[in-house]
Amino acid sequence: MSYHANNLWRSNTRLTVLEYCQKKYYFNYYTNFLKDIDEKLRLDWLLLKNLKSIEMRVWEKTHHLLSDYLKLLKTKSDSSQNIDKLKQDISQIMTNEFNLSKNKDYQAWYDRNQKFWLTEHYYKIDVDSRLPEAIQKVIHNLDAFISSERHPKVVRFFEISQNVYIESPKRPDYENMRIIINGIPELMDVSILASPDFGAILWDDRYFIIDRKSGKEKIDNDTIPDQIKVYVLKMILKKWKLDIGDMDIKWYEVYLPSLKEIGGQITQKDIQDIIQKIVNDVNFQKQFIVDWDVIKNIPLPHKNFNRTTSLKKCESCTFRKVCEDLKKFE
Length: 330
Known about the structure:
The chain is of the alpha/beta class. The protein has helices spanning 12-20, 22-29, 39-49, 54-74, 80-103, 119-122, 131-146, 150-160, 174-177, 226-238, 268-286, 311-316, 320-326, and strands spanning 9-10, 51-52, 117-118, 163-166, 191-192, 198-203, 206-213, 248-255, 261-265. The chain has a domain at 1-31 and 161-310. It is 46% helix and 12% strand. The strands form 3 sheets. Strands 4-6-7-8-9 form a 5-stranded mixed β-sheet, sandwiched between helices. The longest helix is centred in the N-terminal third of the chain and has 24 residues, at 80-103. The two termini are 38 Å apart.
């Protein structure tokens, strides 16, 4: 695979944003091109791009806490004292970040060294009373996992597996997340990322993948999520092939805080389906770049990216203020 710094990237998140609102996709992934329109607008967007709501922070911090806890399990350091310290640390981090966000001057120039703020504070919404509840939600999610039926199974994986992978969401290793594309000509110059929350190689031909989810639980338990299929594609491509062969690959999604599980077996058809889905996704993304050139990855003018027609989406969008400002340049 040839790789250039500006290559088009494909991920489930990017496609979700593009389908949600094309203008939001432009702002998320082509922010630097705003400098040709208006530098102040670009800097405002950079600030907004790093805002997250309290609920989004709860999930982010849950992800961090569970990852840290699994690393304790891996090193057999999961004493009650160490678990309590994890909880104390995440509580302090959330409190400090909340106070920094609350006291920030959002009219000041963009600060690249301090990016992460709360959407509610930017839009001057009083959320002081919600901090204790947010912290408690994060801690409860860890407690729910520790007391669940899934917990002893995960402990067992550390005991019997050849190798266990734990994602590090605080410091993502994007190079390690990259899928090495072999044998798929349509994707040779596209950068694709994939990294499960937890994966275990029990032995050479048996794999187990867990992905944590928040939000609304699925009703259809028979549908394998595209993201899971992408993880498996990454695994088999590391073996320089595109077929599962005799590999036994099981997957599960675990919803928080309920700990409801859905899961099943990966088949060769799942791999064929996800390859075609990725190719279709990339062709969809190419419509928004000049000459369909995935290496240069230059977006069409911002006017070519339509806003959603959903008023509800606009009202809750982090970028709503600057999206309105952009209209005077259209």
